[in-house]
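INPUT
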Amino acid sequence: MHSFIEVLHSFIIYAISAVFQTKLMKLQSSLLQSPQFSKLVSLIVAVTGEIGNNSFDHNLGKWPDVPGIFFGYDLNKRLIVLADRGLGILETLSRVRPELKNHVEALRVAFTEIISGRDPERRGNGLKFVREVITENPMSLFFRSGDAELRLQEGESELSITRAEADICGCLAIIKF
Amino acid sequence: MKVELKKFGTTLISRQAGKEALASFQPTLGEIGASENLEIDFSGVITFSPSWGDEFLVPLLNQLGDRLILLPTDNPSVKVTVKLLEKISGKKFRTG
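OUTPUT
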């Protein structure tokens, strides 16, 4: 019952980044209690934090409809899910890279180039960090924005980005470890 | 002078928090001598992310150059973050 309530409480939209930070630290505490995750704790939390904070940083004051992020995790399944209904990568990056034609191009730029929708502010490194961590550790990432899907896992230096049949609003990330 | 980053928290993960940490550190930074080194101690830090690091460490690197010294750590998130910050800034951190 206790674990069911924990899971249920984790399935909440966090509209304020400070609340997300608090729940992220709860994830960290849970991971620290399991010796099997000891080597990956800091990396799992850092990756989750970077993706989650991106949602707030890039959508502040501009949420199209539901503000905030969905943040859920299941340590038994070794799974973390983050989702938002924000602007998405293409619209965010188009402000500084208007030549981007589609979501696939935008995702590639986001994970490979140091650029930000809030340029010239100093930003744009979070998803590069995520890519480095995922490819160097026993982890995987599924990331969706618009109709573009990225799949990344340990040992893969090339990005695998494909086009899905339908668009989604905002971003979705599934981290496995 | 040595600063223990754990004083700012053990989970250092957002830009806003990094900015606030740097702002709160300014009075102490003002007390560093003109030729004195500033050592960054990561012990006790559990998670360190590039967003926080970019707002705290990179401005210090720009200001202090070689007088900023990162003390050794085995923390994987620190290692990956520092490597990325070096790529982004185009500068190397001095290590102790």
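end of record. Residues 15-29 of chain B form the longest helix (15 residues).
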